[in-house]
């Protein structure tokens, strides 16, 4: 496995965030040719300049999606971490939060995945697409309507795309659903003690680390992988 990604073009969208940076580091260490995108945090993204080509892009923009794909003529892998927590502090904020969540957590990632798959089919390149959802999309958590609704739709869209991509040239589409990770969106919630009960009740022995998500992504990117259309919960058992 350590040599199987060497020289392969992989696009990591949102690859400068907590989970994305760990994934980018793992893939770069195995010799993948990486392009990492960021939307706003340029300073954080440029820390990866030594291991990847770093590009600013907003994947809700058709122009930006086209620009990203045009710059990667032999794309093998696509990983999409981009997303937004879409929290609504009050009922009046829910409609706007839902609309924003659908754009950022569903439309942008799904359209990019479909456009990438279309290019790979045209060029007859076998490859792997990995989308990132959340534990809130596979289990019920009160107060998560805006975020979980869009991320649940992402799961179904990924399964549909996986079914459409069966057969030659061999494009696989899978999803990881992270749990409480000590990075990215969940960091503030962990610091506030929101999830302490999972430790106190013995549901999990620890909170997730970025490397847990990175290894799951790497598993799905393996060229000889025999899995498609699946969702892997990386949550230590919380959704059980």
Structural class by SSE content: alpha/beta
Q: Largest sheet, if any? A: 7 strands, parallel
- The level 1 CATH classification is Alpha Beta
Going by CATH, the homologous superfamily would be NAD(P)-binding Rossmann-like Domain
* Number of beta-strand segments: 7
Globular, elongated, flat, extended or rod-shaped: what is the shape?
Answer: globular
Number of helices: 8
Radius of gyration: 17 Å
CATH architecture descriptor name: 3-Layer(aba) Sandwich
- Multimerization state: single chain
Number of domain units: 1
SSE order, one letter for each helix or strand: EHEHEHEHEHEHHHE
Q: Can you give the mean pLDDT?
A: 95
Give unreliable regions as ranges: none
In CATH, the topology is named Rossmann fold
Query: Which percent band covers the strand fraction?
Result: 15-25%
The helical percent reads 40-55%
Q: Strands across the major sheet, in which order?
A: 3-2-1-4-5-6-7
């Amino acid at each position: 496995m350590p040599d199987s990604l060497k020289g392969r073009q992989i696009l990591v969208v949102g690859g400068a965030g907590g989970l994305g940076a760990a994934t980018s580091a793992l893939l770069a260490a195995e010799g993948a040719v990486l392009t990492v995108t960021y939307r706003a945090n340029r300073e954080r993204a440029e820390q990866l300049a030594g291991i990847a080509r770093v590009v600013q892009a907003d994947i809700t923009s058709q122009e930006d999606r086209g620009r990203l794909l045009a710059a990667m003529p032999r794309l093998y892998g696509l990983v999409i971490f981009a997303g937004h927590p879409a929290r609504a502090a009050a009922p009046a904020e829910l409609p706007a939060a839902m609309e924003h969540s659908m754009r950022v957590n569903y439309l942008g990632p799904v359209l990019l995945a479909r456009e990438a798959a279309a290019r790979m089919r045209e060029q007859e390149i076998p490859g792997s697409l990995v989308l990132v959802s959340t534990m809130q999309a596979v289990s019920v958590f009160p107060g998560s309507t805006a975020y979980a609704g869009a991320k649940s739709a992402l799961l179904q869209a990924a399964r549909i795309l996986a079914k459409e991509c069966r057969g030659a040239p061999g494009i696989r589409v899978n999803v990881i659903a992270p749990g409480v990770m000590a990075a990215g969106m969940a960091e503030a919630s962990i610091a506030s003690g929101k999830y302490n009960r999972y430790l106190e009740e013995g549901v999990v022995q620890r909170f997730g680390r970025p490397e847990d998500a990175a290894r799951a992504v790497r598993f799905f990117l393996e060229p000889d992988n025999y899995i498609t259309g699946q969702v892997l919960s990386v949550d230590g058992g919380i959704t059980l």
